[in-house]
Amino acid sequence: MKVFSTLFIILNIICFSNYSSVLAASIEEGEKIFTANCAACHAGGNNLIMPDKTLKIEALDAYGMSNIEAITTQVTNGKNAMPSFKGRLNNEDIDNVANYVLSQSKAGWLDED
């Protein structure tokens, strides 16, 4: 049992030691994708087309979009004036941009203002 516990701990350390670097990489890639595909309408977390539908955390909370799944669905399928990116971005790119948007919204889009 002691050997199993030790192996379990070592395995967890190995598996989760790179978690923050993987997350950072996906956010970094998400920023590149956002800049190339989204910033024309959403620079600084704003919304050029529908100004009340920003990417600020308060707005995302208000319309149930303050989670990765909701943002991923929006980017994939589009809605209202926002086009679908299903054929333009692959699933990994969409996940990366969703992670970037959520992280920036929680940080107040500090780098964008």
UniProtKB/TrEMBL annotation:
GO MF term set: electron transfer activity; heme binding; iron ion binding
GO cellular component, one term: chloroplast thylakoid lumen
SUPFAM superfamilies noted in UniProt: Cytochrome c
Keyword match Signal: yes
Range of residues in the leader sequence: 1-24
Modifications made to the protein after synthesis: Binds 1 heme c group per subunit.
Subcellular location per the Swiss-Prot or TrEMBL entry: Cellular thylakoid lumen; Plastid, Chloroplast thylakoid lumen
Subunit structure of this chain's protein: Monomer.
Family assignment from sequence similarity: Belongs to the cytochrome c family. PetJ subfamily.
HAMAP family attached to this UniProt entry: Cytc_PetJ (MF_00594)
Protein name (database record): Cytochrome c6
